[in-house]
Amino acid sequence: xxxxxxxxxxxxxxxxxxxxxxxxxxxxxxxxxxxxxxxxxxxxxxxxxxxxxxxxxxxxxxxxxxxxxxxxxxxxxxxxxxxxxxxxxxxxxxxxxxxxxxxxxxxxxxxxxxxxxxxxxxxxxxxxxxxxxxxxxxxxxxxxxxxxxxxxxxxxxxxxxxxxxxxxxxxxxxxxxxxxxxxxxxxxxxxxxxxxxxxxxxxxxxxxxxxxxxxxxxxxxxxxxxxxxxxxxxxxxxxxxxxxxxxxxxxxxxxxxxxxxxxxxxxxxxxxxxxxxxxxxxxxxxxxxxxxxxxxxxxxxxxxxxxxxxxxxxxxxxxxxxxxxxxxxxxxxxxxxxxxxxxxxxxxxxxxxxxxxxxxxxxxxxxxxxxxxxxxxxxxxxxxxxxxxxxxxxxxxxxxxxxxxxxxxxxxxxxxxxxxxxxxxxxxxxxxxxxxxxxxxxxxxxxxxxxxxxxxxxxxxxxxxxxxxxxxxxxxx
Amino acid sequence: xxxxxxxxxxxxxxxxxxxxxxxxxxxxxxxxxxxxxxxxxxxxxxxxxxxxxxxxxxxxxxxxxxxxxxxxxxxxxxxxxxxxxxxxxxxxxxxxxxxxxxxxxxxxxxxxxxxxxxxxxxxxxxxxxxxxxxxxxxxxxxxxxxxxxxxxxxxxxxxxxxxxxxxxxx
Lengths: 477, 170
What we know:
The structure holds 2 protein chains of 2 kinds. By secondary structure, chain A is mainly α. Chain A is 68% helix and 0% strand. Chain A has 16 helices and no strands. In chain A, helix 4 crosses helix 14 and helix 11 crosses helix 12 (353-365). The longest helix of chain A is centred in the middle third of the chain and has 34 residues, at 170-203. Chain B folds into 2 domains: 2-44 and 120-165, no CATH class; 48-112, no CATH class. Chain B has helices spanning 7-19, 36-39, 47-73, 90-112, 126-131, 150-158, and strands at 2-4, 25-28, 137-141, 164-165. Chain B is rod-shaped and about 80 Å long. Chains A and B meet through helix 2, helix 6, helix 8 and helix 16 of A and helix 1, strand 2, helix 2, helix 3 and helix 4 of B.
C-alpha cells in the first residue's frame, strides 16, 4: 500500500505480538480517543486507500442496480437458470452470504458466553459484517421470485384469498429463520453500540455530531442500575443468539436436505453447513480486518493475537468441513444407492469437476498451511488464505446447488447451468454493496467496542486511570 | 455528586454511603463494574423474568399459529401426513421464541432503564458531561433520599476521598 504524508504525522503504532490482546500504555481516555478518533478524523486526513476502496466498491455496487433493474424489467429468464437447474447463482449466493454472517454472531455471542477476552476488539466489527452480509443474502430469494413484488406472501397474514403458507415446508422455515436472524443481529449490534454512542456524544466537538450521537445514545448515562440491566440483557441476547445462529444455517441446509435429490438428501448437511458458515465467516472477518487495522492504525487493538485466534478457528472449522466432505463420499458409497454413487462420481469427474477439485484445493488443502505459526502470523499469507477460503466456500455452495440439479434421475432430462452476465452483475453488485456498507461503517461509527476494551484494561491493570501516560507494561516480544 | 479517579474508590465510597444509611443514590461509570449495582442498593433485576415470559409467549404463539393454520384455517392434505404434524412446526416455533425473547430483552432493558431519556439533571455537572462516559467514576446521592441534607451530605461525600464534589442543578 502506498505510504501517505498523513501517516508520518501519526505516532508509530506497535503491534504487541501474538500474546497480547491490547498494545501497551493505554488508559481509559486514550483508548476512547483512539477509537473515536477514527470517526472524528477530519475528512482531509482520511487514508487514501479508504477513498479508493469506497470508490471501487461503489462502482461494483452499480452491478446490482443494473442487474436488478434488468431482472425486474425482463424477468428471471435473464439469468442462466432453466429446467433442470432452476436454482442458480441466486441460491448459491444466498447460502454463501448467510454463511459469512455467522462468524459475527459466533464472535459476539458464543465467545461472550465462553468469556474469551480476545473477542472484545473484533466483535463490533464482525457484528456489522453479519448485518451487512445477511442484508445481501436476504435480497437473493426475493430477486429470485418470479414476481418479486410479492415477497410478503411468504409471511402468514390474513389475506382476502384466505391462503396460508405451508408450515411444513423448509422454504417457509427459511423465511422465519433469516428474518429473525437479521432482526436479532441488528438489535444485538445496536445495543452493543449504545454506551459507545454515549462516549461519542461526550467527545464530539461539533453540535451536529453531538446531536446525532446524542439521539442515538438515547440519554445513556452509565448508571450502575443501567449497567446491571444492560449486562443481563446482553448476556441473554448472547444466549439466545447462540442457538439461533446454529439454527439458521441448519434451516438453510434443510432447504436441501429435506428434498429427495441425491447429493442433497443427507443428514450430514446441518452440522457441516454450520461449520462451513463459520469457516467462511472467519475468512471474511480476516479479509476485512487486515486492511481496516492498517488504514486506521489499529494494530495495537486488533493485534496478531486476534488474527492468530481467528486463523486457528478457521483451521478447526475447516477440518469439520473436510470431515463433512469425507462423510458425503463415504455415505454415497455405503448407502448402496446407485443414484447417490453416481452423483458423487459426477461431482468428481463430471462436467463440473474443475470446480470440485478447486473447491478441495481451496477449502481443504491450502488452509492446512494454517497449522504453521509462520503462516498464521504473517499478514500477507493469512490474508491470502482468507481469500482462498472465501472462494472455496463459494465453490462449495456452487457444487452443492448445481451438480445435484444438473444430473436428474433420467438422463433425458440432464442439463447444464451457465451463469449469464446478469448473474455475475448481481453477484458482484452485492459484493460492492457489502463493501460500501463496511467501508462507511468503519468511518462513521466506533468499529471497536470502546467500553468493552475499557473493561479489559480494568481487568488487566486496575490502576491505570491516571491522567498522565501510564507506565508502559514491559513487553518482551 | 462526587467524582472519583478509579472504580475501586467508587465501589468503596458506594458501600460506605449505603452503610451510612443513604438509599436513593446512583453510581455512574464508563464501563460495567462488578458489584457496583448491589452496592448502591439495586436488588431485583427484572430483565431475565421478562425475557423468559416473552420467550414462552413466542413459543406458544408460534406453535399456536402454525397449528391453527394447518389444522383449522387451511387444512391441506400433503401426501397423507397428519394435519397436526408437529415436528415440522418446531423450527418456526423456535425462531418465534428467539425473536420475541430477544426483542423483549432489548425493549425491556430500555424500559427498565427509562430510556430514551432526552434530559437528565446529572448532565448539568460540567465534568460529568465531559468524562462520565470516558474515564471518571461518579457517585450521586439524590435529594429525594430521606437522609439527604445539602450541607451534611456534601461533607460526607468530601470525606470519601473524591477528586471533586459538585452540586447537581435540577
